[in-house]
Amino acid sequence: MSAKEPIILLEKVSKRYGSSNSKSTTNVLTKVDLEVYEGESMAIIGPSGSGKSTLLNIMGALDTASDGSVCIAGRHLNEAGENELAEFRRRTVGFIFQAHHLLPQLSVMENVLVPLLAEPQPKGMLEAEERGRVLLKRVGLDHRLDHKPGQLSGGEKQRVAVVRALICKPRILLADEPTGALDRKSSENLAQLLMELNHEEGLTLMTVTHSMELARLTGTVLELEDGHLQTNRAS
Question: Rounded to two decimals, what is the model's pTM?
Answer without folding.
Answer: 0.89
